[in-house]
Amino acid sequence: MEIYNLDKEVYKIDLADFERQAKALSDLTTFLQDTISAHNITYLKNVEPHPWDILRALKKRLAPSDTAQKYEVIYAYRKMCKGPGNQNIETWLDEWDRVYTEALNIDLPEVKGNRPMEDFLMAVESKDPHFTSTYMMKLEDGEINDIYTLAERFRHRLRLKAIYQPNKSTTHTAFAAEATNTATASKLDASKSDTSKSEASKSKASYKGNKKDKPDCLCGWKHFYNECYYLNETTRPSSWSPNAETQARVDEAMKEPKVKKFVEISLQRSRDFQAKKSNDNDNNKAREAHPSFSAAVSRGSYSTGTKTSIYDSWILDSGSDTHLCNKSMENRYKQQRLAKPGDTVASGTQVLPIHSYGTIIVSAKGPNGNITIELLDVVYVPEYLTNLQA
């Protein structure tokens, strides 16, 4: 009798455990059914109402194949290699770690050897050229062999820069427009917005002037390698001639294998980017069907020796990062300083030398009529096809 009572107690305990597990599974099944979208409910027909069966059926229908997952990671990695752009740098670094780890998990060839570290350094070059050049040398010497260590050192450098240079901006200095009519100066932005609706289109004139955060080049000036006339033949104006002493200094520096390799990598990256940009423009059917000022600039389909219908006009262009005027405005333009060698404006496939920097008086339509404004830090490029107000 005692054995019977003992077995009965054991049975009650086992039954309580079973009922508790059954209730938990039932609750989980209900939760899954409530959270699955109506579109996916159809995949659960003729499926046992058990969490394991439900999840297995959904995985069979919805989980990406190994091939699809591989292509998703490849696309994400290549996107990361383009650099952070305007994205928050800390967010971009976290995303880099995540994508790189996923690439490792699927044994992606792109993350073998030193390739990911080279990709990382070139991706952050626009944010910190000195860091890229320094650690590219260390990578060649074998001092760095871990991408996580490299990324953490870059994070540490950013923190130090934030501490010691809290007010330094890493972006291009804003170009000021000083309204002489103080009553309407505060409404200038509104008038620019109204005026922009009537303009032909937006151009992508990119200013490559004197930036404080540009690295020291082999030629002695501060600019990127792809902007140097001594290193990149494609940027040289037809009238340019090298300085013998500078050319000798560049040639001597290029004899160092590590320096030469880094310069070649930097130039190749620039060529690849320009080639991709050119291909994207050529394949843009919308622009081919509806020509605009923007298309004319990006495709480089104009001649600097030919005056266009907009040669003496002003284009309000929020896509440009600087005010710019050509020879048609020389009577209004007041020169303040000459440009340095290597200062250029890029527009599509053309690179034009900057003559000088100064100010200019222009008229604009405001809400209450015409106003006169003085544009500061204006770039003077006599051969440019029009005039731009940023």
Automatic annotation (TrEMBL):
InterPro entries in the record, alphabetically? PolX-like_BBD
Annotated segments matching region Disordered? 184-212, 272-298
- Ranges of Basic and acidic residues composition bias in the record: 189-202, 272-290
Report domain Retrovirus-related Pol polyprotein from transposon TNT 1-94-like beta-barrel positions. Answer: 314-388
Pfam hit, one? Pol_BBD
Indicate what this protein is called per its UniProt record: Retrovirus-related Pol polyprotein from transposon TNT 1-94-like beta-barrel domain-containing protein
Give the organism, scientific name. Answer: Lasallia pustulata
